[in-house]
Amino acid sequence: MNEIFSPAHKPVPHESAARHAAGSALYIDDARQPEGLLHAWVITSTRAHARILTLDLAAVRAAPGVVATATAEDIPGTNDAGPILAGEPLLAERVVTYAGEPIAVIAATSLAAARHAAGLAAITYEDLPAILTIEAARAAAAYVVPPMRLERGDPDAAMAAAPHRLTGRAEAGGQDHFYLETQIAQAEPGEDGALHILSSTQHPTEVQHIVARLLGRPYAAITVEVRRMGGAFGGKESQASLIAGMAALLAHKTGRAVKLRLVRDADMVITGKRHDVQARFEVGYDDAGHILALDMEIALRAGNVADLSGPVLTRALCHADNAYWLPDIRVRGYACRTNTVSNTAFRGFGGPQGIFAIEAAITHVAAALGKRPEDIRARNAYGPGRDITPYGQPIGADNLPRIMAELETLAGIPARRAAITAFNATHATIKKGFAVMPVKFGISFNLPSLNQAGALVHVYTDGSVHLNHGGTEMGQGLYVKIAQVVAQGFAVSLDQVHVSSTRTDKVPNTSATAASSGTDINGMAALAAVETIKTRMAEIAARKLEGDPADVVFADGRVFVGNRSLAFKELAQACWAERVSLSATGYYKTPEIHFDQASMSGHPFYYFAHGACAVEAAIDTLTGAARILAVHIIQDCGASLNPAVDIGQIEGAFIQGLGWLLMEELVWDADGRLQTHAPSTYKIPTARDVPPVFVTKLLDNAPNAKPTIFRSKAVGEPPFMLAIGAWLAVQDAVANASSWECALKLNAPATPEAVLRALGK
Ligand code: MTE
Ligand code: HPA
Ligand code: MOS
Fold this sequence. Notes:
Distance between the termini: 65 Å
Helix content: 25-40%
Bound molecules: ligand MTE, hypoxanthine, dioxothiomolybdenum(VI) ion
Number of strands: 29
Oligomer: single chain
Structural class: alpha+beta
């Protein structure tokens, strides 16, 4: 009984697991097609930077099946889809700024007709000089937001005084989100200029705002709905608005429902990715390996417009400490404007780039001192008296010492190290490497105003519960976790709680489901709504059961006063009969947080999520191929709301991180055209890349020190960065095969070619 009625902290399945497996979970492309639905296609720039001299769509419009085309001139409102800054056109006006930029859209009676017609567009260009790389943008001082600087102490003096100094650099490539469901939206006109949009978006409210801006309509006229996404990973945080915007523009122009679904190649060319990064550093250190001074530059390739690059860079700078005490530090950040697709949010949101940079710097120090990198990591760990981040936030409750100690046992670290040394001594071609690495990740949007959420809960008179909240489901298990919260709150069974699609007309003014905070903020909002309804229900229960409202207890699907009780459903009926409202909204804002962007200081995160991994890798020195042989992870999920979902998140994040660091390589040609826009040329991890030993453990007995929802901790992004440990293990294998001098040349992704290059082959 208790099992069923208190589902919080239980490993219950994802709410759609059975439907995912059976194929009955509906995605937007499966939605019932409205009468007269049109299919859209996008005409894109073939040039990285050019003036559009002529744009002739007559042949497109004359093609069979084509109903309408639209260009920037057809936008009735403002041609701007920028999520934060203005000046980010939905459709190019006179100039194109990346190869793949949308110029016009077509609506036709079938996808094939729209696609065929696109080939008939006659566009002439006059090429302009293009900036394609981070180096070129740095040389031209071309940035999408002003350079940033995070500084503490006196890094110059500390550097000058340090016993040793070194300089180094490290680079990591970008990453395509490769969500299985490509970007999609379907817009359907209603009465009086209203528009209903199904959008595969993490941020329905932003889609609503941007569509309203494009069409010159009030927000209230636009309703955006999403039941689930087939993966998002940050790729649908801001950029889903572009897809919805184009569908909405065509729906507005034709007065008919329009669906725009990007095929994989178009999705990869048109939409942004993880920012590739170049880091340079100077480190001052002592013989023991204490880092005394750090002067670092982090340059991200932002692409043609800002999109979310400002907050991504801020998060990169605020993670350049990872889990280390760096007393005197300066980190400069550059969001480089290039004539390539606008890079965007991607799991970790700059955190991976910042952590990658400091881990590379630590390896340099270890190599210079001839010590193990893990020992340098341990030496520089945060601890008592050395527990304030460079941006001034105290670390607070720190579970990392316990995690590192437990990992030592879980992974059998000393024995493993000895075995690897023995293996390398007796094998010439295959060489193994090992790494142990902690991760600290800040939880909250780094823009404090975004940390708010709302929910709407109804109890019906049969005792069933309708749940709605501002968060979106992208596979991460948010819906089941919030349903667990509501079921726990009412002490009803999980089956009684019906989750419903996220809609801007049910819960307004929401934030993106992002920054790993979906459960934290929507869970608290839903619980607030539950508490409001319970307070009202308790009044009636007290009357019926002849007790005091303060003594009413909800448990086991019933409501008790002492040993007298009513079924939850009977109480719901009684409330209705007494004319008591059984519907409530709930609201939550994260306490304590603040951040001053100008000085880059404050308390941007409510708390930190910690984890650590031990990774064993092997490289084949003839082919350069790397394999991850064993991974042990301990992740702190607080009092996990759902251990099954959380372990899935950790495993998925780690494997996605492996893709970023070991195999996924984006290649642009000399003219700025993406060459890798399909799985044939872009290699993502598959089941074969899952390490044969893959042990994931949640830190036990670790309720969040902050009063988060049932003392749980966020999990969506933090474990992604553990995969940097896999890259470090490959780097270690390269060092074992040749030298640290070679190993320090390795960049990410550590593809076979990159490993061979580092080995000097
Ligand atoms: N897990 C799945 N299956 N699919 C996704 O798209 N996105 C990740 C993470 N886990 C994602 C995922 C990202 S980038 C974030 S920010 C969080 O989920 C968002 O959801 P949450 O805040 O509910 O954890
Ligand atoms: N994560 C994700 N999205 C965001 C953030 C963040 O920290 N800040 C602003 N948008
Ligand atoms: Mo996640 S990158 O914050 O959507």
